[in-house]
Write a structure and sequence with these properties.
Elements: H1 4-18, E1 31-33, H2 34-41, E2 50-52, H3 60-85, H4 95-105, E3 113-117, E4 122-131, E5 134-139, E6 143-148, E7 152-156, E8 161-174, E9 177-192, E10 195-200, E11 203-208, E12 212-217, E13 226-237, E14 243-255, E15 259-272, E16 275-290, E17 295-307, E18 312-328, E19 332-347, E20 357-372, E21 377-388, E22 395-406, E23 411-422, E24 437-448
Parallel strand pairs: 1-11, 2-9
Antiparallel strand pairs: 3-4, 3-7, 4-5, 4-12, 5-6, 7-9, 8-9, 8-12, 9-10, 10-11, 13-14, 13-24, 14-15, 15-16, 16-17, 17-18, 18-19, 19-20, 20-21, 21-22, 22-23, 23-24
Helix pairs in contact: 3-4
């Protein structure tokens, strides 16, 4: 097993070779591209995130001073260029006025973090995090705001943040995509358009915006990896007839640069005139490990199903698989995956002389498609097909398709169509056979978190 310390040592030696003798020079001369870091470790194969520590020993305030000097030098250079281009319009502008004008146009972080939107608007406050194409920013006046990362033009942090970045290894370009290396480093962040600088005590790393995976204040916080949604639909009727329909949907995901854990729940309980007409619960789990940016393997996927009216007391599915991300853009996400599985079923009732349980091998294939139709509406399609070893043509599927309508940043109204199909359902003890298809149209309120 490759030792983690080997990576840190290699990075340290690389930095040592290019680090000037004084911290004062760091703001200008000690600049290197992130690809230099990738070349140092390109010969090693690992799925771990490589943490790159600041070896200078400087405090956050001292690093902040270096960043301030870099900002000042950049401001003077830009103002000088503008003044030279507009001499006729600004003939008497002295150096102090130039710097003040530039700082008004592009604020220098002295106590707060700053972001600029593509509209040209600046916001002052506390930078929280950027992940999964969304940026969180806390403003004193506007409170916590969530922006699409593509709507952000500039970021200037006052505080030290942790930046995770992904660098592709050009030496490997197989059918499944480029292998990539993930690096995490701390520093003062300057983002402007497509260019990113991370200012540290031991130098300044420059990279392109496309390399960014996540940005977090104060190190990697576990809660920043998690996201989820909870939906509930309720239909209550009283009078000549009594009816209670309850549906709950929960989705929870943990996403890091190398792994993805997905947990889903779907449950229904329906009653009419105090008589139960539906009672089913489904829990799904999938854990994916990314080998390249698009290709991943699934060391474990699992499902638990309980459906009284499909004659299923308990059903367990466990398998392994592989997957591929076909599309991953701001508006469209599309994954396909599949693999072998084992299924164990315990039936509620069976005909006399038949086993009340069964075990069988299966092949599971699934796809997930998510498209942003408008700024407020998303279309989501999830489909899972299970081919079961046994009678020819024996299979089942589970499909959920929905329109998610955003009301606020955290509240949605969703319209979902759910279709479960089993080709050969197990007969009950009374010889009755459950209906093959279960379909449901659901309108629910959803809360994002």
């Amino acid at each position: 097993m490759i030792r983690f310390s080997f990576f840190i040592e290699s990075i340290f030696l690389t930095l040592l070779m290019i680090t000037p003798a004084t911290a004062e020079d760091n703001s200008t001369s000690n600049i290197f591209d992130v690809t230099e870091l990738a070349e140092t470790i390109s010969g090693e194969k690992t799925l771990e995130v490589i943490k790159m520590d600041d070896t200078s020993g400087l405090s956050d305030d001292e690093v902040r001073d270096i960043a301030g000097e870099a900002d000042k030098a950049e401001s003077k250079a830009i103002i000088k260029k503008r003044a030279d281009e507009e001499k006729s319009r600004l003939p008497s502008m002295i150096e102090e006025e130039k710097e003040a004008a530039w700082e008004e146009l592009s604020p220098t972080p002295r106590k707060y973090d700053w972001i600029e939107l593509i509209s040209g608007e600046w916001l002052k406050g506390d930078f929280k995090a950027m992940y999964e194409k969304e940026l969180e920013f806390d403003s004193d006046k506007l409170d916590l705001q969530v922006f699409d990362f593509d709507d952000i033009k500039q970021i200037r942090t006052h505080r030290v943040v942790t930046v995770s970045l992904m660098v592709e290894d050009d030496s490997y370009d197989g059918l499944l995509g480029l292998r990539h290396t993930t690096i995490a480093m701390m520093g003062i962040l300057r983002l402007n358009g497509k260019k990113v600088s991370i200012i540290r005590g031991d130098g300044r790393v420059e990279l392109e915006r496309k390399h960014l995976i996540s940005i977090a204040y104060g190190g990697e916080n576990e809660y920043e990896y998690w996201s989820g949604k909870f939906n509930v639909g309720l239909d209550i009727r009283r009078g000549n007839s009594e009816k209670l329909d309850y549906t709950a949907i929960a989705n929870l995901q943990r996403r890091s640069s190398k792994t993805r854990l997905q947990l889903d729940y779907l449950g229904n309980i329906f009653t009419t005139s105090n008589q139960e007409t539906a009672n089913n619960h489904r829990i799904n789990e999938s854990f994916n490990v990314f080998v390249t940016k698009k290709f991943y393997y699934t060391p474990l996927f699992a499902e638990y199903l309980r459906d009284k009216y499909q004659n299923i007391r308990d059903q367990y599915t466990v398998g392994v698989g592989i997957g591929y991300t076909i599309v991953d853009t701001k508006k469209v996400d599309w994954d396909i995956s599949g693999g072998p599985a084992m299924i164990y079923v315990k039936y509620d009732t069976v005909e006399e002389g038949r086993d009340d349980s069964s075990r069988t091998a299966a092949l599971e294939l699934s796809t997930s498609y998510d498209v942003e139709v408008t700024k407020k509406i998303d279309f989501v399609f999830d489909y899972k097909l299970t081919l079961i070893k046994g009678d020819v043509g024996d299979y089942k599927h589970h499909m959920v398709t929905s329109l998610e309508n955003e009301i606020t940043k955290w509240l949605d109204v969703d319209i979902a169509f759910i279709w479960d199909y089993t080709q050969n359902p197990e007969p009950n003890a009374d010889m009755s056979v459950p209906v093959k298809s279960d379909m449901q149209l659901l309108v629910s309120l959803g809360v994002d978190f």
